[in-house]
Each structure stands twice: as C-alpha cells, then as structure tokens.
Amino acid sequence: MRRRFLESIGALAVAIAVASLVPASVAGQAPASAKAKTTTAAKGYTPPRTADGHPDLQGVWDFRNVIPLERPSQYAGKEFLTDKEAAEFEKSAAERLDMDRRDEDGARTPPVVNGAPATADVARAYNEFWWDFGKKFVGSKRSSLIVDPPDGKIPPLTPAAKKRADEAAERRARPAQGPEDRGITERCIMGFNAGPPILPGAYNNNLQLFQTPDYVAIVTEMVHNTRIIPLNGRPQANVPQWSGNSRGHWEGDTFVIETKGFYQATSFQNSSPNMHLIEKFSRVGPDNLLYEFTVSDPTTWSKPFTAQVPMRKSDQSLFEYACHEGNYGMKGILSSARAVEKEAAKTGSR
Fold it and tell me: Could you tell me the pTM of the whole model?
C-alpha cells in the first residue's frame, strides 16, 4: 500500500540472504560472448548485466496499472486507445474504484479489479486510505492486458470449469462450514495479486527480484510469497505446491519460467491444478520491465491466452503484509458463521 507501516522482517531476511549471493550489476563488463548475444528493446536499449552476462533484472518493481485484464466491450476490436479515450478511461476507473461509491440502497459497493471484488471478507470496511489501485496507463495505452487472443478476452470456460466456478461461488455465498469454503486469498495462503501469474490488484502491487547464476528469487509483497526458481535444468519435482514447480532458463535477454505441478487453484481466477504457465521477464528500459505470461489448461479454458504487464522500477522497499493462514480473521469468519446458524435455528429462518 502507499501508506505502509510495518517493515517486513520475513521478506527482509530473504532479501539479505539472497542478496548476499547476488553478483553485482556490471553494465558494460559482460563477457564478449554475452555481448555478442545482446538483444535490444525499446529503441535500442541495452540492459545492464550481471557478472555472468545476463540482463540485470534485480530490484523492486511496481506493477500497478489501470489497464484491465480483459478488453471492455466499448473498445471491441481496438487494441490501443487514443489519448482522449485513455484520459476518459482513467477518469471513469477512478470513479469506479472509489470506495465511497454507493449502491441505490445507500450501501457501499466494493470495487472490482480484474474481474473480482477487491477483497472478499471486508469489502465494505475499507476506505480510500487503504487502497492503492493503478489509476494511470503504464507502458502503453492498450485496451487490455491480454494480448492474445486478439479480442483481448479470456477464452470461454469448459463446462467442467464452469461447474467448478459455480460451486465455488455457492460456497462463498453461504456461511462457511470450514476454512475450505473460503478462497485461498482470504485464508492468506496466496496473495490476491501474487499469482502466479502476477496481476495488478487493489494494493501491494510490488515484487522484488534477486539473481544468482543458479537461481532467481521472486518475492511478492502481497502475503510475502517467495518463489525460488532453479536455472540448472534439473527435472521438476513431482510434489504439487501452491505456487507450482518452476524451472527457469534464458532465451537471449529474456528470462523464462515454466511452471506446472500446482497443488490446487492459485489466486488466478478459475485456475486448476492442471494449469501450465509460461512467464517471461524482459528489461526494456532503465526503469521498465515487461512481464508476460501464457496460460494453458484444456480442462479449464477452451484455448491458451497471453497477457503482458508492464512494470516500473521502484525506489521503495518491500514491507510486511501481515496475513497468515490460521490467523484470527479466519476464526472470526467461522465463529460468526456458527452464530448465524444458531440464530437461524432459533428463529426458524434460513
């Protein structure tokens, strides 16, 4: 969030441990073989390099953006907006994300970010102080983060996936019978914008990258997840994990991560354990990083799709988001559900 209060001891410890292994950036001092392979981006930009010759992606990166994940219907067939359209969209987005916006009954209505309410359990308890949405176009004036398919839309769900989504919505709508009825972001297992894949959200839109010749670490500020990606080509482990099993490699100046073996759904909407994810990081300017991901899962979507999320260098540190599985928030949710059931049994209502 813009106004953060507590420094992250956990994230800082990871940062110190990993940073001690990180080779210093040595722009202009890469081996001749690496220089020969240098590719340019963004008007001939040549990225700084680490001692092993690869582009230096390290640092804290801010991925706030007003660009929606899917293309709004009013921009159908239009990949990029004009300056006037972009200004109008930024204005309407600011109004839409205003937490003081009321419905026709006078109640606050939660803002929606990339197809989902900003938060599930306290959507009407926060005010503008706590939010840090992207309110400006960053990187381009694209009408959607999705770049393929050309219509800028997530492909349709399969019938089985639609059934899963409906069942999940029913569980969220009733008093929780157990923690499994609540989403994994509400349970503080995965951050709502941490993915993978990573997408702009309501706040904490920051991550930090660390590099060594053998590993890249990605620390997301939201629920302070840390993904450590091996680069040594070893086989992917056959042990499902919440963030999946990731392996990385370099394709020219682009860092590529392949992830599969997910334990359950991630915070990415409608994902399943069968999701196959390809992520790419490219340094395209002194203060600009381009993150791209391609999602494939024939058990969930009718075809693969690709999105691009521009990121900007930040001069701030990561801070703790104190959200942990089994915290008192979940106890409150479950105890209140039992209270609702008890009252309903007394009155005979449902």
Answer: 0.80
